[in-house]
């Protein structure tokens, strides 16, 4: 089982926008309440934010967090979440059949993001609401003062504008599960008009139009084309969403699913560029993969109707899931020239790298680690590497390389980083990597995450069962690296 990589500093595949390492916090289950916010918890700060959770989010160096949904946003009135907390309404959230207390709203979430060093990717409600609520929210958040909504923010205690740069025009508007679902034409028109008005309030903002809620929707591709036909001149990004799972217990097939993400991205690029040609436009639409992850251990049902912060979508991840997350991150990086924003869905408790117990511990799931490594080390430019690898066929894919890898040049840190997954379930992979274009380069660190049992995971009682360790046996001589990547493993090689 062998593979080779040749990396040359002269061949750049794409500049990485740091927002590629975004995440997502939705008012869903225990993501907000009992997740980021739990007043009364021994580790809560004076605002009620859990310090242990904040610390882990900082470790991930999350640059951007999508908020407040997701499906939730399509029924959300942002005005319910601002002003004195005691006056905020308790509302039925029809997306997750829960009760929303509105204790946390826009301003509190902005405060929390500031504390963890992240920007917000704010979604507006284009399900039950429209242009007016959207432009008012931009005014509330971004206008310095001297107008009705900006003065309202100041009166609520936030003197300085939040200056939110990235905005989503609704969420998954093609989905039958969405409150206020629309046809592509209905949505395209609404998104264009909302975008116009929002940008009139603040010309500096960037806007994301909704693509299909997944590649498997019957309307996929037509939806994208129609929406872009209406919005092309007004938006900067088109969104993609995709979740992957292993319901049939076919691990070889599951581990190949990043190939699906790869072809999904290529298809959406083609549609964007077709619309560019059709419109004779000079502008290129970029991609925002603003929901992606492994999600299949739990469903979306809430058996605890109208509960506050019910335990839903609390997937417990294993090593195999982390490897898939690693391959998905590598795939996003390979498309860094067009995918400028991506949000792992989600951040805390809900299909998340971080889990918490009410009143108790917080711990890192297996998927925390590839996300952290790529976010922390993978800044700069993606280099085009030449890769050969032994391959296999699985149920849905042919020619799946055992090696999934990407190389990043971080000029600021003076580092080259290789991220690699060995998909093989039984055998190690002998990797030869040619780095001769980097004169005098040395191996700084080899990190590996593996486990004998690919189904092993972490829990409150056993938080470090699956965690990265220092790898051994990597040798670099005359610019040529040889390393043995263990079976089903996640690997990070740092060179300086
Ligand atoms: O991330 C969970 C949900 O998945 C989001 O609310 C929705 O947009 C998607 O269907």
TrEMBL record:
GO biological process annotation, one example: polysaccharide catabolic process
Q: Which domain of life is it from?
A: Bacteria
| Coiled-coil regions listed | none
According to the UniProt record, where is the region Disordered?
Answer: 456-475
Task: Enumerate the UniProt keywords alphabetically.
Answer: Carbohydrate metabolism, Glycosidase, Hydrolase
| Class of this enzyme | hydrolase
The pathway noted for it is:
Glycan metabolism
Presence of keyword Hydrolase: yes
Family annotation (InterPro entries): Alpha-L-AF_C, ASD1_cat, GH, Glyco_hydro_b
The Alpha-L-arabinofuranosidase C-terminal domain is annotated at 290-489
Which reactions does this protein catalyse? Hydrolysis of terminal non-reducing alpha-L-arabinofuranoside residues in alpha-L-arabinosides
The EC number(s) attached to this protein equal: 3.2.1.55
| A molecular function GO annotation | alpha-L-arabinofuranosidase activity
Q: Which Pfam families does the record associate with it?
A: Alpha-L-AF_C (PF06964), ASD1_dom (PF22848)
Q: Does the keyword Hydrolase apply?
A: yes
Give the record's family classification.
Belongs to the glycosyl hydrolase 51 family.
State how it assembles. Homohexamer; trimer of dimers.
Which PANTHER family does the record match to this protein?
A: ALPHA-L-ARABINOFURANOSIDASE C, ALPHA-L-ARABINOFURANOSIDASE C-RELATED
Would you tell me the protein name for this molecule?
Answer: non-reducing end alpha-L-arabinofuranosidase
